[in-house]
Design brief:
Strand order of the largest sheet: 1-2
Order of helices and strands: HHHEEHHHHHHH
Radius of gyration: 18 Å
Distance between the termini: 48 Å
Length: 236
């Protein structure tokens, strides 16, 4: 098991990487599909809040995920200061950075490690979920990852891992665009960007631009790492 977990797996064929990349792009751009797939982004978003809250010494009291793909993470500690700032900052940054981490693992052929790391993160998050939909969302997501990692063959595992990494990288920008659209309509007065503005005095738009820069930077670097080596074009 340890050798399987830490060992490298062969790269999938180049056409499969391109195919799952296009599927991930379609899931982000096609609005009906996005409404469902966005639950994965919300899990990563709230998981980022929770992890950074713990790392900065705050007391995590619970996480809720809702069917409208919104979520909330509650932690206790000082209502201001670096811990609160980093906790608020982590939400929108986590999905693309997690996608970048997945891309690094895939660049080294660590497909199995990626799948089991995902299970570990989902399991840790499940302990802190405080509502029924959140439990259902994590159980379905975790069950899917487990089924692929335990029962699927190498090709399907590789396709799933590349799909997960590609989706998280591509999905990093759309929530930021949606956030700013809601802020411009004054529909998100307590958004992460506005909380950061209150905590730091830096305008909320600046934080939105930072979220967007992190998402674009992760996409650029992660996309480079995931780009397959295509076969040479024959010359006649």
């Amino acid at each position: 098991m340890w050798e399987r977990l830490t060992g490298a797996q062969p790269d999938p064929p180049w056409w499969l990487v391109i195919l799952v990349g296009l599927a991930a792009l379609a899931a982000v751009l096609h609005t009906p599909t996005w409404r469902v797939a966005r639950n994965v982004v919300t899990i990563a978003h709230e998981g980022g809040h929770a992890l950074v809250a713990l790392l900065t010494g705050r007391r995590l009291t619970g996480i809720k995920l809702h069917s409208d793909t919104s979520g909330v993470t509650v932690s206790r500690g000082k209502p201001h200061g670096p811990g609160m700032v980093f906790t608020a900052l982590a939400g929108y940054a986590t999905p693309p950075l997690l996608g970048l981490l997945f891309a690094v693992l895939l660049a080294f052929g660590r497909i199995t490690l990626l799948l089991w790391l995902s299970l570990l993160l989902l399991g840790g998050m499940l302990v802190m979920i405080r509502n029924a939909y959140g439990i259902l969302s994590l159980v379905v997501t975790g069950g899917t990852v487990f089924a692929v990692s335990w029962f699927a063959g190498p090709t399907l595992q590789a396709a799933f891992a590349y799909l997960a990494a590609s989706f998280l990288l591509l999905a990093g920008t759309r929530p930021v665009v949606e956030l700013q659209r809601m802020r411009s309509r004054r529909m998100a007065p307590t958004s992460d960007a506005d909380q950061l503005a209150h905590l730091t005095g830096v305008p909320g738009l600046t934080w939105v631009l930072l979220f967007f820069a992190v998402a674009l930077g992760s996409l650029a670097l992660g996309g480079y790492l995931l780009t397959p080596d295509t076969p040479p074009v024959p010359r006649f």
